[in-house]
Amino acid sequence: MKFSEIVQKLDSAAVSTSLTSNADCDPEITGVAAVDEAGSGTLSYIEGGKFAHFVGKTSASALILPRDEALQAQATERGIAWVTGADPRLLFAAAIALFYKPFHPSPQIHPTAVIHPSAEVGQEVYIGAHAVIEAGVKIGNHVCIHPNVVIYPEVQIGDRTTLHANCTIHERSRIGSHCVIHSGAVIGAEGFGFVPTPTGWFKMEQSGYTILEDGVEVGCNSTIDRPSVGETRVSHNTKIDNLVHIGHGCKVGANCALAGQVGMAGGVKVGNGVLLAGQVGIANQAHIGDGAIATAKTGIHNDVAPGAIVTGTPAIPHKVFLKAAAVYQRLPEMYQTLKQLQRRLGDNK
After folding, report:
1. Phi and psi for 130 in degrees, rounded to 5?
2. Whether the predicted pLDDT of 160 surpasses 90
3. Does domain 108-321 have CATH number 2.160.10.10?
4. Could you tell me the pTM of the whole model?
């Protein structure tokens, strides 16, 4: 499509405000690409100063730029069409959606799917080959269930949710609308509940519920366990990466982002807007306040205050960690200084 059409669609999508562009430059755009790989006919973006030098050498025909007049002038001089808005990365995400539509099969029920007579299936639903849907399941409208999905009894699934191939939804789980569960994920499996006795471990049945509110996305091979009583809950619009484990009885707030290999023990409470980077581990019953950030491989054993940024194991304030890391790099030098001082003190005796 013409670049001017893209600008118009981005403007109407309301992903940004006050879009401006060099409207006199209107190339044909055939796709999108990373700025360092872009070729003629492609659209790319510059998020900030770190990538600003690409404006002078990219082969892209059009760019989404930050509100930087110098970059805009440079792009114009090179004959590159551009549009600018408050959030270039958000605009680029919307532009990708103009050229790429994820696979979504037409509504139908494959003849090999096994559906219990008591299950309720909404309108315009796709159920793929060898999917199994047990008794009492309720499936909303426009749901997409890919092949080999297994849904245990009494599960509820909201409208326009997608369950990708080979994921498993255990009994009595509740999944909201517009959710995405990726391949291999397991929702509502038994929590790790065992009571020690003189003769060994006594299994505590996990009779609770797992609830995913609207707009939750769960990555491949992630697990969200149900508790012995009560519920495990992930609140609306939270995004969960691959290989994440959320233990029984956890409560995860809204608009959180959990990167790969995050692990939560039982009873953890995570506030709204929390960011957990890769391989963060959280111990039993810890509370993470709203807006907190834990950097990669942080080990959290105690509560984290709202808005705090923590690093390390055990977790400490990120600024303190950086100072400690600077000292750590100087330990060999400091050790040599210590040895010299010890020798001088010894000579003075």
Report:
1. 65, 15
2. yes
3. yes
4. 0.90
Question: Could you tell me the two tokens for 232?
Answer: 């495990």
Q: Check whether 14 has a pLDDT greater than 80.
A: no
Higher pLDDT, 274 or 349: 274
Which part of the chain is CATH 2.160.10.10? 108-321
Contact between residue 226 and residue 173 where contact means Cβ atoms under 8 Å apart? yes
Q: For 296-305, which contacts have Cβ atoms below 8 Å and span 24 or more sequence positions?
A: 296/259
**Tokens encoding 31:** 């796709």
The pair phi, psi for residue 283, each rounded to 5°, is -80, 165
pLDDT tens for 222-244 read 999 999 999 999 999 999 999 99
- Hey, what amino acid is at 217? E
Enumerate the active-site residues.
Answer: 248
pLDDT of residue 95: 95
CATH 3.40.1390.10 in the chain: give the residue spans.
3-99
DSSP 7-58: HHHHHHTTSSSS-EE-TT---B--EE--TTT--TTEEEE--SGGGGGGGGT-
From CA 45, how far away is CA 82, in angstroms rounded?
9
Least confident of 15-24, 86-95, 159-168, 331-340: 15-24
Q: CB–CB of 245/192 below 8 Å?
A: no
**Residue-wise over 162-199: b if at least 16 C-beta within 10 A, else e?**
bbbbbbbbbbbbbbbbbbbbbbbbbbbbbbebeeeeee
* Per-residue model confidence (pLDDT) at position 229: 97
Rounded to 5°, the CA angle 83-85-87 comes to 125
H or E element that contains 318: helix 318-329
- Does CATH place domain 3-99 in 3.40.1390.10? yes
